[in-house]
Amino acid sequence: MIKGLTIIGLTLAVCAGTPASGSDWSGYISGEYRYFSHDPLYPEQRIQYWSLATQPEYYREWEGGDQSFTFTPFARWDRFDERRSHWDIRELNGYWNLDDWQLVAGVSRVFWGVTESNHLIDIINQTDTLEGVDGEEKLGQPMVHGTWTQDWGALDLFLLLGFRERTFTGESGRIRSPLVVDVDNPIYESPRENKHIDYAVRWSNSYDIWDIGVYYFYGTSRDPRLEPGVNDEGEAVLIPHYDIIGQLGLDAQVFLGNWTLKLEALDQRRREEKYAAAVAGFEYTFVGVLESQVDIGTLVEYSHDTRGNASTSPFANDIFLGMRLTPNDAQSTELIVGLVYDLDYDGEVYRIEASRRLFSSWKISFEAQTYSGIDQRDPLLYPVRDDDFLQLDIAWYF
Q1: Contact call for residues 307 and 336 (beta carbons, < 8 A)
Q2: Listed residue (251, 267, 247, 248) closest to 213, CA to CA
Q3: Which of 107, 230, 258, 391 has the most crowded Cβ, counting Cβ within 10 A?
Q4: Cα 146–chain centre separation
Q5: pLDDT at position 56 over 90
Q6: Structural contact between residues 28 and 55, judged by C-beta atoms closer than 8 angstroms
Q7: Mean pLDDT score, 103-132
Q8: Three-class secondary structure of residue 13 per DSSP
Q9: Summary mean pLDDT of the chain
């Protein structure tokens, strides 16, 4: 499932040549239940879904942590959605600390961004849409990643060796378009298709109350265009088209007491198209509410995309309002509730995420999402207007 892993043999060979100073296995096994409150729009779908997942991790370090090896596979079995039964290698890499340089070679995950509602500039790894609707789960990416650290900041250099195609829900899965995406016949702008080597460079630094990062990415877009087509069986489907893009991005945070100001912005060129997008907002935290250890954060963000209604993102002209509750208790309880309001179509998406540790090795997580007032002109949300769901996940950590 993962192409372009020729670097892994080198990773293993180099790490194996040095005496070990520590190793450890960790990870989780979880069971998930999803309940959809409306009958499905498409005949193959169901109201209830069950699945099992596991993500073990092996970590070993040498030389007091200056060298390490990480292996993190992931697998899920879904009772009804055949595509959601999948596996991936999230991490399989070696790490070396070389004074001013840090080097990672192998399969890794890298996250960029500061905002809550819209992860606009996070481009290194492909999104694993089978694992959630919030875009936070990512596929492992084969890469060589070097970081040069100086007084003026950190410079990150990336060679991305092999492209990961986006995952999409199958015919029997929910939260999908009327036409299933044909993942077996993607179309690439590059003649090298999924063997195209992408690259990126990013500078970041902190200045007193500022955190700032600027990057440039060139390579295959992680966000495909979906166009109507016909598969090998003559069925109507959506065909993913992966363009070559150049993207300049910025993320910044400013800390002013209880206030945190946030910004993500990008300028992208693909084919004959050029567009810009941004998400900006703030979070204000009420610390120690009523003289307790509970913190409450209020969040406001606005997303804009110059493509307007032609955008492939649901965040073209939207406001996000949210609240984050952090009890700071021994059970690591977390709760965030939010509303995304579409200023073009007047649609609303409500979302709740909560989690709490049970005993020493168990964790329970709850997630819910509901749609309200979705306009039939909305090409992205109208097909999933009846996909309101509740999700319960119980995980055992080891």
Answers
A1: no
A2: 251
A3: 107
A4: 22
A5: yes
A6: yes
A7: 97
A8: helix
A9: 94
